[in-house]
Design goal:
Number of domains: 2
Strand content: 15-25%
Shape: flat
Number of helices: 9
Distance between the termini: 28 Å
Radius of gyration: 21 Å
Helix content: 40-55%
CATH architecture of the largest domain: 2-Layer Sandwich
Structural class: alpha+beta
CATH topology of the largest domain: Beta-Lactamase
Largest sheet: 5 strands, mixed
Length: about 260
């Protein structure tokens, strides 16, 4: 089981701020979690938030029940079922693949929840990610990918970016999706959509917005085919690594069982 622990110092901090609204950064620091995890918890209703303008604020009072004052070091949040997916291993491999191809990659589970951190954000997407509204919209886009229930295909995210996704399987069962993207498709008319999206989200100069849009890689038909072949090959490699890891764990469990019998 996995639990989240809050120190006594943090409890005292909460006691003095129960009536306040916390920013996402304060929640992140308080719970010692990644920024995207804050929005996952908001998205699946584990956290309550209030949208003020384009930013989210979190009532501090909801964190009071996350710690038993009688047992300062006890678990404060219900444990989540831990995925058998080897996240740390896959993150390392994903990062290597992403660096070699110089494109953004991400692995999500079959419900659309990110399993790994996105590698190689383009400047356009980094600006979106830094906004509370943009972070939540990204999470919603990944859920749309999972809802399609296809083995592979192209999709556009909320901002109009093109992504190619490929299912990852183990023994014929879907376990995750590999995404590669942050592209403009040459045949699509997404240029104005990308500019409009940033204009509505941010209060920045039009020239800055144009520069961010121009920074997005453009794929022609041949490049699209190359991306499809590369993502397919990467998906196959990841599946083989995952299967070998699973088999190794099974053998280790068998050895442990034999050791118990003979001891």
């Amino acid at each position: 089981m996995s639990y989240l622990i809050i120190s006594i110092d943090n409890i005292h901090y909460l006691k003095g701020a129960m009536d306040d609204l916390l920013t996402s950064k304060q929640v992140q620091d308080l719970l010692k979690i990644e920024r995207i995890t804050v929005y996952r918890m908001l998205n699946d209703h584990r956290l309550q938030g209030i949208k003020i303008g384009k930013q989210w604020r979190f009532p501090a009072s909801q964190f009071e029940n996350m710690q038993s004052l009688d047992k300062p070091s006890t678990a404060i949040m219900p444990p989540n079922t831990l995925s058998p997916f080897p996240v740390h291993c896959m993150q390392t491999i994903q990062n290597l693949i992403s660096d070699l191809r110089e494109i953004a990659t991400l692995i999500i589970d079959t419900d659309g929840n990110p399993l790994t951190d996105t590698k190689n954000y383009c400047k356009f997407c980094q600006v979106i990610k830094d906004e509370d509204e943009g972070e939540l919209a990204c999470l919603a886009s990944w859920k749309r990918v999972a809802a399609v229930k296809k083995q592979a295909g192209w999709m556009h995210c909320h901002a109009g970016m093109a992504y190619y996704f490929h299912e990852l399987q183990e023994n014929g069962k879907s376990i995750a999706y590999l995404l590669a993207g942050q592209f403009k498709i040459a045949a699509d008319d997404q240029h104005s959509h990308l500019k409009d999206y940033l204009t509505n989200m941010l209060e920045i100069d039009e020239h800055q917005i144009s520069a961010l849009v121009e920074d997005v890689p453009v794929l022609d038909a041949a490049s699209q085919k190359q991306i499809e072949k590369w993502v397919h090959s990467a998906a196959v490699a990841l599946e083989e690594i995952f299967i070998e890891r699973t088999d190794l764990l099974k053998r280790l469990q068998q050895i442990a069982q034999i050791s118990q019998i003979t001891s």
